[in-house]
């Protein structure tokens, strides 16, 4: 459902707070990332405000490193009679992927989570030369 907006701002932005702060619902806005090129590798610093360490996963597959974060919150308020005045829940996830090369393994990448920030170090590795030798598969049978 679309909500009305005035001058590009959603009318409910101030009424319903967004758990990741006052940002739009875009992965690139939530997962602000800085990448620094050093002689030894790349330092990646990603901001994940409001996310706990146990809700952050890093995966390496087919040369892509993917950072996945989930967050959920509940805000229940009742009056003296137990009737709901407000009851809100939020649950969401976001992910970003970076191509780091197919020659890296999980052990090569170092990661640390501290104060809502993930810091990763991805070392530079020289690409292994492609092996042009043909390798045949043995076929069994009569």
Comma- or semicolon-separated keywords:
single chain; 142 residues; mainly beta; 3-stranded antiparallel sheet; 3% helix; disordered N terminus
Protein topology:
Blueprint: E1 5-6, E2 9-10, H1 27-30, E3 33-37, E4 41-47, E5 56-61, E6 64-78, E7 84-99, E8 110-114, E9 117-123
Antiparallel strand pairs: 1-2, 3-4, 4-9, 5-6, 6-7, 8-9
Structure description:
With 142 residues, the chain is an all-beta fold. The protein is 3% helix and 46% strand. The chain contains 1 helix and 9 strands; from the N terminus they run ββαβββββββ. The protein has one helix spanning 27-30; strands at residues 5-6, 9-10, 33-37, 41-47, 56-61, 64-78, 84-99, 110-114, 117-123. A 4-stranded antiparallel beta sheet has the order 3-4-9-8, with no helix packed on it. A hairpin with a 3-residue loop joins β3 and β4 (41-47). The longest helix is centred in the first third of the chain and has 4 residues, at 27-30.
CA-CA gap between termini: 66 Å
Q: What oligomeric assembly is this protein in? A: single chain
- How many E-type strands? 9
Order of helices and strands: EEHEEEEEEE
Proportion of beta-strand residues: over 45%
Biggest sheet, strands in spatial order?
3-4-9-8
Largest sheet: 4 strands, antiparallel
Low-confidence stretches: 1-7, 11-16, 18-28
Percent of residues in helical segments?
Answer: under 10%
Structural class: mainly beta
Number of helices: 1
Cα shape: elongated
Concise description?
By secondary structure, this protein is mainly beta. The protein has one helix at residues 27-30; strands at residues 5-6, 9-10, 33-37, 41-47, 56-61, 64-78, 84-99, 110-114, 117-123.
């Amino acid at each position: 459902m679309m909500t009305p907006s005035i001058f590009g701002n959603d009318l409910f932005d101030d009424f319903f707070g967004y758990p990741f702060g006052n940002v739009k619902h875009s992965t690139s806005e939530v997962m602000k990332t800085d990448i620094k090129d050093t002689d030894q590798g790349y330092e990646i610093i990603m901001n994940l405000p409001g996310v706990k360490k146990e809700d952050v996963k890093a995966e390496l597959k087919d040369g892509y490193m993917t950072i996945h974060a989930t967050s959920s919150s509940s805000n229940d308020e009742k009056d003296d009679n137990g009737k709901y005045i407000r009851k809100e829940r939020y649950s969401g996830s976001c992910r970003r992927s970076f191509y780091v090369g197919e020659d890296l393994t999980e052990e090569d990448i170092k990661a640390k989570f501290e104060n809502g920030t993930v810091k990763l170090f991805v070392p530079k590795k020289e690409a292994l030369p492609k092996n042009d030798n043909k390798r045949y598969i043995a076929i069994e049978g009569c």
